[in-house]
Write a structure and sequence with these properties.
Blueprint (H helix, E strand, L loop, with lengths): L4 H13 L4 E9 L2 E8 L2 E6 L7 H11 L4 E5 L11 E7 L11 E2 L14 E4 L4 E9 L2 E8 L2 E6 L5 H10 L5 E7 L9 E7 L11 E8 L6 E6 L3 E8 L2 E8 L2 E4 L7 H10 L5 E5 L15 E3 L11 E3 L11 E4 L4 E9 L2 E8 L2 E4 L7 H10 L5 E3 L17 E2 L13 E2 L13 E4 L6 E5 L5 E9 L2 E4 L6 H11 L5 E7 L7 E2 L30 E6 L4 E5 L6 E8 L2 E5 L6 H10 L5 E3 L3 H4 L5 E3 L30 E4 L4 E5 L6 E8 L2 E5 L7 H10 L5 E6 L7 E3 L29 E6 L14 H5 L14 H30 L26 E3 L9 E3 L78 E2 L6 E2 L16 H6 L33 H11 L8 H11 L6 E8 L2 E8 L2 E5 L8 H11 L4 E5 L11 E3 L31 E4 L4 E9 L2 E8 L2 E6 L5 H10 L5 E6 L10 E7 L11 E8 L7 E5 L3 E8 ...
Parallel strand pairs: 3-5, 10-12, 31-33, 37-39, 43-45, 53-55, 59-61, 80-82, 86-88, 92-94
Antiparallel strand pairs: 1-2, 2-3, 2-7, 4-7, 5-6, 8-9, 9-10, 9-14, 11-14, 12-13, 15-16, 16-17, 16-21, 18-21, 19-20, 22-23, 23-24, 23-28, 25-28, 26-27, 29-30, 30-31, 30-34, 32-34, 35-36, 36-37, 36-40, 38-40, 41-42, 42-43, 42-46, 44-46, 47-48, 49-50, 51-52, 52-53, 52-56, 54-56, 57-58, 58-59, ...
Helix pairs in contact: 11-24
């Protein structure tokens, strides 16, 4: 067949042109998309085709030819624009198999039937990219496609999970988890790239779906698609999404990846894929638990740049049977940066986490963290950490993550991070750092830290050269480790060149002494590769690390040590709890609970580290333990630990593990989570962590009866996967109160268990024993001790029986029972000067009395009630027997019993008769008013003038002459030479004085027969002569006003002319009224004119007259002057003076009280002489400054005194020349003010509120002897100084020795005086004093809670020196809140809200860091630290919510709230004491439990102190009750108990520890408060480990020394038996397993010097008062940086050193000066101690450009008493690190010796008792020659015991308790036992009827100086009484 020519030509053309030309795609944004163009004959032209011809087959040829994958979209509609040149081809058919486009059928080159509008375009698959943007990682976010070189969105209004599945699978992100729309996007003008698509869900790529629109489109679209994929990889089993076992997605399931099938490059890809930071570690040791399910069948080979693990090359597996899964730990942070600091190396710390930047909180930011960050950023080392917020607040969420870097980490992400339970971060509290900016020119690369790896040297920025191995490697390594701050080289080794390495230096030649590597002899760069490809690698000592493996928790696992470049396990053979304790402490995990072997966490792999074992428990690192050299390991490696910091979580209370009350385990204790403000996302986080689904619901259940909670205010964010990463309030056991406890119900998706964070079963289900005791065998010494104990018990029992038989044998002889009398034998050498004897309820005496002693040594008898008003006199001895009578004088009672009647006088039986009278109807005490100025009581209606008594008649004798119905007290006047009644001080009614004394004397000292009426009347007239004759009126009080006299029953004024009325006449008035001296006299009616008669016109007074009417006058009613001349007087007693609105009673505006009103004092010439008088008058020492009141607060009101001129030596201000006596209403421009030096001060302490007491004597300060002040006086001193309550009174040299002389006297205060100088001063009773008194006051006056809606909830505010301010929350914790709530009477604390929850308040924010134990009585008792504490940001105020229900019981009068007298609240503010009884053990158990004070350690009786407390009848507690209210308590007693002894308890929670004998808080003699007393610690077994526990318990760091008594003195008090054998890790000294003490050879006085000891000095100059400021901290001296140091800091330092009161501040260059401890020190004006100044936290640092602080003081070194330098032993001695402890004798030996000694004593006593029995029974007719003294007692009036205060110098040295013998036998009182029964009538003995009683002496107040014994009458009978004192037997 013939072929047409035209067709033949076309075929020829096609054949000729086949494959001959080039192909490209243009204007599509890349080589794989665009308009199709071909090159022919060197010219490019387009290709056109109609839509019926250009399809996927043709476009597929183009994509395949270009190597651009498959076709995605083909269009003939000039999709990429029209071409401009030739159209070369018109393709009209392709079957898709052609190799090139020109292989398709076409019309020939240049021949076409279509125009450029049909230019074809192609989009190949390689031209498109897909991503997810603005999500938390590469597998979630907005779907975006890259087309034409631009990224744009993907939109579809029908977008569903099929579309999302395709996207996720295409991206290698596993299956889709969620999809939605994104209405708004983060960037403007993003085009829409793909629109309108339909996917089935199984497509390989999104462009394989049916896509309608290929963009870009610029119009906005509301259906932009977003996807959340499940991801291809994840980390499970860790505590966050950035650590755990690696699992990948295989279909719809998760499978593990075998360890060894991923490397560190693949780990980096995984971390990036998960939105975490750099990969920190790759584990294969089951770090996060075993694998669950199958393994991925392959391995991953990554180059490290891939976005997803699925993008890495996948290789066949090289481990066929895998059991160990790969585990990865990523940094939670992607990147770090420093902002707003002026350079890249200084500024605010900001961190990127999961794509979001935010500033880091400064709460836990410290210098090791800063060093790691600076090195990581290439900025060298950190030189300083500025205060929080110094570089601004930044933007984004403030991250409260608490880093805990060691300092050697390569990246901050390697540091442990804690979030849950960390203090809340207030707004603006951002961290900052200033780095040196000079990067180290060397690095160790490729190791586990920056301190090990291949040595590389920087040759230019960013270019590193490796160092080859050589002969000089040792020296090179030494210099490199030193320069990097990494210690010394531990291992030097060679590493092969990996081919990718840096350039290479020729060999470095270092000797090892060079400071820098640059000083070594280094040659230039090698011109060719080294012949030795091995590089030098070094492992420095600073590279050592510790980790716990084999467990999913940070604080439990197998211990592994990184040393010399490798990880190794620890041998189990010698592993102990002490070793484990060190490991836990080093990892920041608390203390060790267990030290398991390999059976718990596996044996591990790698070499065994040889350095473990023999730890004491107190070391700071495991490699600091003195381990033995390993000689093989029998049990192999795998030693592990379980630490108290182990965290766990659970839901309890329901059958399912996925719903219930949320509980967390912390410090081995489970606790709830309070529901206050818990975020809803917390439920989802908990459910995810437990593997219970991805969501849950939150509820609050009532907290009643639910137990304590650990956490509150938990605020997880949306998407959180772990509770441990959620912020909350700090960890603390608390009550949830009204907020309730958190209850969570999860989605119950328990099938997905792989995300559960529960630890391995061994951790979950096993108990955690604290200690396991090994079985012990019984030794022969034990048997001996048991035998001796048994014999001792038998001997004591025999002794008791013998005593009982003695009593029975001797009761049938001698005296018959008819005498009805009971007697006591008294030893007058032991009898105190007086004895207070409280009477029991229902006694006729209605009071107590005083027993008068016989100072001659003769016997004096004691009645039930007795007083003596005069000084003691020698008693007259009776020639017959020497017995003397005593008279009981009852005291006044506020409300006498209405039924009381006078006792009938007993008949005289020949014995010592005691007349006992009581105040009945006729002798009921009346209330009298004291005679003015004298203190003498006068009846209001009878006497206003006291008269002398005739002939020296004693008041008591005179009163005895007055009949009962006419009895009145006598008054006395001022005249000398007459027999006057002894004045009784006002207010002494309670001590047998005042009106009670005289009225009682009137009733009791009268003879049996009543006196006749006329005599009584005459005596009454004599006593009250001239009474009510004179008064002062209209002056605001009785001692100022217009003078008026009473005549004939009518009052009238007194007038006189000015030349007659002067100081002498007015002085008579003042003296007559007892109003002191005259201050001002005026005849010009200064107090107004009288209205009635003018009775007197005196015209001349000498001033010596007794009364005004004794002055010459014109007679009654005769006068020559009118009312305008009515005279007025101001007496000294009418005036008062004070200083107001100052910081205390000794500074402020001068104010005088006149006419009953306070007003100012004005003087325009006010000077130091005037101020001196004011200060001396107020008892405030000398004047320090005279000012006008503008210095303080100016006020209005009247002016009382004006224009004053003083010489300076006047006794009072009104003794000066005063021109103006107010009140005046006028300007206050010249109101006066004064600052006094004060009368008292405390020196040697670290603040003005603690130290040695010194008082002002003239112009000098003198010390006050210990013993010359008591706690009442200490309260006055604290109030005077503007401090709070007195906390302690020391006499043990607590603040150093006295300087100078002592004050010649003692102080007696009642506690209400404003100044110590206002207290009564007594003669000294210690003649040669050497020990000064020291006082510790609370720095706070008062506390309150504000803005909380009640008095028991709110913001904590404190008053210090008169100024209120809120307290900072930085160190505020649960023990602090408990103490405050109890102190405020608000019960216990139930929650601590976040800082600022109750508002910011007003006033200065106090940054004081309290460190309460929880048992203190007052927050002021808690240790306080200010210097070196973190800065407190604005608004960071502390708050608390108390229960509001005060405990209905308290222990009062002890050293803490956990010991003292038990009192029960009967109504608010009213307390009742609990008497002793049979049920005391049970009562004490319940009381201690209810108060949260542990268990009772001591139960004892305390006497009634006369405080007037009501009394409960006996409480009957079994001991199992939860509350004291559940005990069988009867109603209130209707009458006082017959047993005045109250129940006192010392609970175990009352134990305290202190350091005494040193002025510093962290050094001194160790003393323990236990069982109600302070005791020292024996030196025999005291070691550094014991001292370490004491230091840690006191918050003083660790022990540097454990000295003996030679350092801080032996101390006083009993030896505490509980010290010794501490491991060093115990939290309290009494938790050490001490042996029983068997004597103490070296005595008490064990001490401690702790690392927390602070000191300061000025160095570098010849004078100690100028130089560089240095502080001692943790045993190391360091400088203080000068950055922003306040000028007042110089004054504070100078005051503290005793170098004057001021100084100048300068900054010296820091170069070569060594490190500094502090910076940003900001003392306030007036600060007295550096320790109370705020600053940046303690840290060794370089000062840099800021320089170091230099101070020059005023050199006023005379006032050395204020220096706070410690004792010389502390200043000049070195501080050794360890002290060996001497060996001790075994406890059994000491016990046996003790039992044997007691047995001998018991047998000897038994023999003596037998001998005395025989002697007693032979003397039934005993005569008076025995010299015994006896007393007849009325048992109806005898109390159950008698308080007997002793006089000074008596052998008893105290008062005693007389215990009644209810059975007739002697009763002895033990330390823990009292007699519970009511007294019974004594059994009358047929022989003598005597009753024995034992007096137990106790401390007494000093006796009344005026007391004297009554004269004794004769008597003939007697009663034996045994009197004993507290000696060794008691």
């Amino acid at each position: 067949m013939m072929v047409p020519a035209r067709v033949l030509g076309l075929l020829l053309c096609v054949q000729l042109c086949k494959g001959s030309e080039e192909l490209r795609l243009v204007d599509g944004g890349g080589r794989c998309a665009g308009r199709v163009e071909v090159n022919h004959e060197g010219e490019w032209g387009s290709v056109c085709s109609y839509d019926v011809d250009w399809d996927v087959q043709a476009a597929g040829v183009v994509c395949r030819q270009l190597g651009c994958g498959t076709v995605v979209h083909a269009s003939p509609y000039s999709l990429f624009g029209k071409g401009k040149g030739r159209i070369w081809l018109h393709s009209f058919f392709c079957d898709g198999t052609e190799a090139t486009l020109q292989d398709c059928l076409n019309l020939g080159w240049g021949k076409h039937f279509c125009g450029h509008e049909w230019d074809v375009g192609v989009i190949c698959s390689e031209a498109l990219e897909l991503r997810l943007a603005d999500g938390g990682g590469p597998c979630e976010g907005r779907v975006e496609a890259k087309l034409r070189g631009r990224w744009g969105t993907v939109a579809d209004e029908a977008w569903n999970m099929n579309h999302a599945e395709v996207v996720c699978q295409q991206l290698g992100c596993g299956s889709a988890a969620h999809t939605t729309y994104t209405v708004q996007i983060s960037e403007d003008h993003i085009p829409l790239m793909l629109a309108g698509m339909k996917c089935k869900g199984n497509e390989k790529a999104i462009w394989d779906c049916n896509i309608v629109g290929f963009g870009p489109y610029t119009s906005p679209y509301d259906f932009n698609s977003s996807v959340v994929c499940q991801g291809f990889s994840r980390l499970v089993g860790g505590d966050s999404e950035c650590s755990g076992r690696l699992e990948v997605r295989q279909g719809q399931a998760w499978v593990s990846v075998c360890h060894g099938h991923v490397d560190l490059m693949a780990a980096q890809v995984v971390c990036r894929e998960l939105g975490c930071g750099t990969a920190l570690a790759l584990y294969g040791t089951g770090q996060f638990g075993p694998a669950e399910g199958s393994f991925w069948d392959g391995s991953f080979e990554c180059n490290g740049t891939e976005l997803l693990l699925s993008s890495c090359a996948q290789q066949p597996p090289h481990i066929q049977t895998c059991t160990q899964p790969a585990a990865i730990s990523c940094s939670p942070y992607s990147r770090f940066r420093l902002e707003d600091g002026g350079s890249d190396c200084a500024g605010r710390v900001e961190v990127e986490a999961r794509g979001v930047w935010g500033p880091l909180c400064a709460t836990a930011w410290d210098l090791p963290d800063a060093h790691v960050l600076c090195h990581h950023l290439g900025c060298g080392s950190a030189i300083s950490i500025p205060p929080p917020g110094h570089f601004g607040v930044g933007r984004g969420r403030l991250r409260s993550d608490a880093l805990s870097c060691r300092g050697s980490e390569r990246h901050p992400g390697e540091c442990p991070v804690e979030v849950l339970g960390q203090p809340a971060c207030p707004p603006g509290h951002t961290a900052g750092v200033s780095c040196s900016g000079v990067a180290e020119p060397l690095q160790l690369h490729g190791g586990e830290s920056r301190c090990d790896g291949r040595l590389e040297v920087a040759v230019r920025p960013g270019v590193w050269a490796r160092v080859p191995v050589g002969l000089w490697d040792n020296g090179t390594a030494t210099v490199a480790c030193r320069q990097l701050g990494c210690g010394v080289p531990e291992k030097i080794y060679a590493v092969p060149d990996n081919g990718s390495g840096p350039m290479e230096l020729q060999e470095l030649r270092c000797v090892g002494t060079e400071e820098l590597l640059a000083q070594c002899n280094a040659s230039g760069m090698a011109t060719e590769p080294s012949k030795s490809p091995a590089g030098l690698a070094i492992a420095c000592s600073g590279s050592k690390q510790l980790r716990l493996a084999g467990s999913p928790r940070r604080c439990a696992g197998r211990v592994e040590v990184y040393s010399e470049g490798t990880w190794g396990t620890i041998c189990q053979d010698t592993w102990t709890l002490q070793d484990a304790n060190v490991a836990c402490g080093q990892l920041g995990c608390g203390w060790a609970l267990e030290a398991p072997g390999s059976e718990r966490f596996g044996p591990g792999t790698g070499t065994q580290w040889p350095g473990a074992g023999r730890c004491s428990g107190s070391e700071d690192a495991l490699w600091h333990c003195p381990s033995l050299v390993q000689r093989g390991c029998r049990r192999g490696g795998g030693a592990g630990v379980v630490c108290s910091g182990l965290l766990e979580m659970r839901l309890t209370g329901e059958s399912s593990r996925c719903s219930g009350h949320l509980e967390v385990q912390h410090e081995v204790t489970w606790g709830h989570v309070c529901a206050n403000d818990t975020s809803p996302a917390t439920a989802a986080a908990v459910c995810r962590q437990l593997g219970c689904g991805h969501g849950g619901s939150l509820a609050a259940f009532p907290a009643e009866g639910s137990g304590p909670a650990w956490l509150s205010w938990v605020s997880c964010e949306e998407g959180s996967r772990s509770l441990w990463r959620c912020p909350s309030a700090p960890w603390q056991l608390q009550e949830c109160g009204d907020a309730g406890i958190t209850y969570i119900t999860c989605d119950e998706d328990t099938g997905d268990r792989s995300e559960a964070t529960s630890p391995a079963p061994a951790l979950t289900h096993s108990t955690v024993p604290l200690q396991t005791a090994a079985p012990r065998s019984v030794s022969s010494l034990t048997v001996l001790c048991v035998l001796l104990g048994t014999l001792l018990c038998l001997a004591l029992a025999t002794l008791a029986v013998q005593a009982h038989r003695t009593r029975a044998l001797c009761q049938g002889h001698g005296k018959d029972a008819a005498s009805e009398a009971v007697y006591e034998e008294l030893d007058y050498n032991l009898i105190p000067e007086y004895q207070e004897v409280p009477s029991h309820t229902g006694s006729l005496s209605q009071g107590s009395g005083k027993k008068v002693s016989d100072h001659s040594g003769d016997g004096a008898e004691e009645s039930d009630l007795q007083v003596s008003p005069a000084s003691p006199a020698q008693p007259q001895r009776s020639p017959s027997h020497g017995y003397d009578d005593a008279v009981a004088v009852p005291e006044a009672s506020p409300s006498p019993h209405p039924g009381d009647a006078p006792a009938q006088p007993p008949e005289d039986t020949g014995y010592d008769d005691v007349g006992v009278s009581t105040l009945g109807t006729s002798l009921r005490p009346r209330r009298f008013r004291s005679s003015p100025g004298t203190g003498c009581p006068c009846p209001c209606a009878l006497c206003h003038r006291c008269v002398p008594l005739p002939g020296g008649m004693a008041a008591s004798r005179l009163a005895a002459l007055i009949p009962a119905a006419q009895a009145r007290p006598s008054c006395h006047g001022p005249s000398a030479g007459h027999g006057a009644v002894a004045a009784v001080p006002p207010g002494s009614a309670g001590r047998a004085g005042g009106p009670a004394l005289l009225s009682a004397a009137a009733g009791l000292l009268r003879p049996p027969g009543p006196l006749s009426g006329p005599l009584g009347g005459r005596v009454g007239a004599l006593l009250c002569k001239g009474s009510e004759e004179l008064r002062l009126v209209d002056g605001g009080g009785r001692c100022a006003g217009r003078v008026e006299v009473n005549h004939e029953g009518e009052w009238g004024s007194v007038c006189s002319y000015n030349f007659d009325w002067d100081v002498r006449g007015a002085g008579v008035v003042c003296r007559q009224l007892g109003c002191g001296t005259v201050v001002h006299a005026s005849p010009y009616s200064p107090f107004g004119q009288g209205k009635g008669r003018i009775w007197l016109h005196p015209f001349f007074c000498r001033g010596t007259e007794a009364t005004l009417q004794d002055c010459p006058h014109f007679g009654w009613g005769n006068h020559f002057c009118g009312h305008e001349w009515d005279v007025g007087v101001i007496c000294s007693e009418a005036l008062e003076l004070r200083l107001a609105d100052g910081g205390g009673p000794c500074e402020g505006r001068v104010e005088a009280k006149l006419r009953g009103r306070w007003g100012t004092v004005t003087d325009d010439a006010w000077d130091m002489a005037d101020a001196e008088v004011v200060c001396q008058q107020l008892g405030c020492g000398s004047a320090a400054g005279a000012h006008f009141a503008s210095r303080f607060q100016q006020v209005g009101g009247p002016i009382m005194l004006a224009f004053i001129k003083c010489r300076g030596d006047e006794a009072a201000l009104w003794d000066c020349n005063i021109q103006g006596w107010g009140p005046y209403n006028g300007p206050h421009d010249y109101d006066t003010a004064v600052v006094c030096q004060g009368f008292s001060r405390l020196v040697g302490g670290d603040s003005e509120c603690s130290g040695r007491l010194e008082v002002r004597q003239g112009q000098a300060w003198v010390s006050v002897c210990h013993g010359h002040v008591d706690l009442m006086a200490a309260q006055v001193v604290c109030r005077e100084l503007g401090c709070g309550t007195a906390l302690a009174l020391y006499g043990t040299g607590q603040f150093g020795p006295a300087e100078g002389s002592f004050w010649d006297g003692s102080f007696k205060c009642n506690g209400t005086e404003p100044l110590l100088s206002a207290c009564a001063q007594q003669p000294p009773h210690i003649q040669a004093c050497t020990q000064p008194t020291a006082i510790s006051c609370s720095p706070y006056s008062r506390f309150r809670l504000e803005d909380g809606g009640s008095d028991c909830a709110g913001r904590v505010e404190v008053e210090a020196r008169g100024v209120w301010g809120p307290l900072c929350a930085t160190a505020w914790d649960q023990p602090d809140t408990h103490v405050l709530c109890h102190h405020l009477g608000c019960g216990s604390a139930i929650s601590i809200p976040p800082p600022g929850h109750f508002g910011v308040g007003r006033g200065r924010l106090r940054s004081d860091a309290l460190s309460c134990r929880g048992s203190e009585r007052h927050p002021g008792e808690c240790p306080v630290e200010v210097l070196g504490q973190p800065a407190c940001p604005p608004g960071h105020t502390a708050g608390v919510s108390c229960s509001g229900v005060a405990e209905p019981l308290q222990l009062h009068g002890g050293e803490s709230r956990c010991d003292g007298r038990l009192e029960v609240a009967v109504r608010p503010g009213v307390w009742a004491r609990v008497p002793v009884g049979l049920w005391d053990n049970g009562t004490a158990t319940v009381a201690c439990r209810q108060l949260g004070c542990g268990v009772p350690e001591k139960i004892y009786a305390v006497p009634d102190n006369g405080s007037g407390l009501m009394e409960l009848q006996e409480l009957r507690c079994v001991g199992t009750e939860e509350l004291l209210a559940q005990c069988n308590a009867s109603e209130m007693a209707t009458e006082p108990s017959k047993s005045p002894a109250g129940l006192a308890i010392a609970c175990s929670g009352s134990k305290q520890l202190r350091l005494a004998g040193s002025p510093r808080r962290c050094a001194g003699r160790v003393e323990v408060y236990s069982e109600g007393t302070w005791g020292t610690v024996c030196q025999d077994t005291w070691s550094l480990q014991d001292a370490n526990v004491a230091c840690g318990q006191l918050g003083c760091g660790w022990a540097l020394e454990a000295p003996g008594s030679e350092r801080f003195g032996p101390g006083t008090g009993t030896l505490w038996p509980g010290a010794g054998r501490c491991s060093g890790s115990e939290d309290a000294l009494w938790h050490c397993p001490s042996l029983v003490q068997r004597g103490c050879q070296r005595g008490g006085g064990a001490g401690a010097v702790c690392s927390g000891l602070l000191d300061l000095r000025l160095t570098g100059e010849s004078s100690r008062c100028s130089g560089h400021l240095e502080v001692l901290h943790e045993g190391t001296w360091g400088h203080v940086c000068a950055n922003d140091t306040s000028p007042a800091t110089a004054a504070a330092v100078c005051r503290q050193l005793g170098c004057g009161h001021g100084g100048s501040l300068a900054a010296f260059p820091a170069e070569g000066s060594g490190p500094a401890w502090l910076s940003w020190v900001s003392c306030e004006e007036g600060a007295r101690s550096l320790w109370h100044c705020p600053s940046a936290p303690w840290q060794l640092q370089e000062c840099g450009d800021a320089g170091i602080t230099y101070i020059t003081c005023d050199e006023n070194t005379g006032g050395r008493s204020e220096a706070t330098s410690p004792a010389p032993a502390l200043t000049h001695t070195t501080v050794p690190l360890q002290t060996a402890a001497p060996r001790s004798v075994s406890s059994l030996t000491v016990l046996c010796v003790l039992l044997g000694t007691l047995l001998c004593l018991a047998l000897a006593t038994l023999a003596v008792q037998a001998h005395r029995t025989q002697a007693l029974c032979q003397g039934h007719g005993k005569d008076a020659a025995s010299e015994a003294v006896y007393e007849e007692l009325d048992y109806n009036l005898i109390p159950e015991y008698q308080e007997v205060p002793s006089r000074t110098g008596s052998l008893s040295q105290g008062s005693g308790k007389k215990v009644s013998d209810h059975s007739g036998d002697g009763a002895e009182e033990s330390d823990l036992q009292v007699s519970p029964d009511s007294p019974a009538q004594p059994q009358r003995s047929p022989s003598h009827g005597y009753d024995d009683a034992v007096a137990v002496p106790e401390a007494s107040p000093s006796p009344h100086p005026g007391d004297a014994p009554a004269q004794p009458p004769e008597d003939t009978g007697y009663d034996d009484v045994g009197v004993s004192t507290l000696g060794t037997s008691l």
